[in-house]
Amino acid sequence: MIQEIKARIYNVQEVEQRLLKNGAKITDQTYFIDTYFHQPEGKVLKIVEKKKGAFINIFQAAHGKFQVVKDERIDNIEKLKKELVAQYGIKRIMKGSRKFFQFQNYQIIFNLIDDVGNFIIVTGENPSKEFVEKELGIEKPEYITVSFDEM
Q1: What is the rounded CA–CA span in Å between residue 93 and residue 54?
Q2: Which of 9, 35, 73, 94 has its CA 20 to 30 A from that of 115?
Q3: InterPro entries, from UniProt (predicted)?
């Protein structure tokens, strides 16, 4: 199952340069608007709007990581958004930019969230803290074990 591990970073350019030097490839770059809906603790439901369209994401917290339960393109965003607002209510709307890299067997995402901070997300089969620290060279990372809408 696809999982993700997240950490706050302060040296975005340095980590990005290290990734590129070690063979990572940039696969996408986009601005985003994430609309989070109220959910029980440990569960995340959001609509992501970006240049490639709109997507519904559902995540479940598990052992300090998040499991990707659903990541699907949606066609009628306004209809779905109305339904989710009626059912759950909006918890938070966040904006920012993301840059995607492919490195080894992982997708690395730089998630720069307006008024919240800069983060790196490692997505794939069982990403580890060891990978973040040794392969990405991030010293003493501040791991994030809650959804961004909780910050």
Answers
A1: 14
A2: 73
A3: CYTH-like_dom_sf
The reply to whether the predicted model has a pTM over 0.90 is no
Q: Among all chains, which residue has been given the structure tokens 């983060």? A: 119
Q: Are 94 and 49 in contact (CB under 8 A)?
A: no
Whether the CB-CB separation of 46 and 80 falls below 8 Å is answered with: no
CATH number of 2-150: 2.40.320.10
CA distance 84 to 42: 18
Residue 76 pLDDT > 80: yes
Indicate the residue type of 66.
F
> Of all helices (H) and strands (E), which one includes residue 56?
strand 53-62
* Residue closest to 9 by CA, chosen among 111, 103, 120, 148: 120
Task: Specify whether the CB–CB gap between 3 and 136 falls below 8 A.
Answer: no
| Model pLDDT, residue 55 | 96
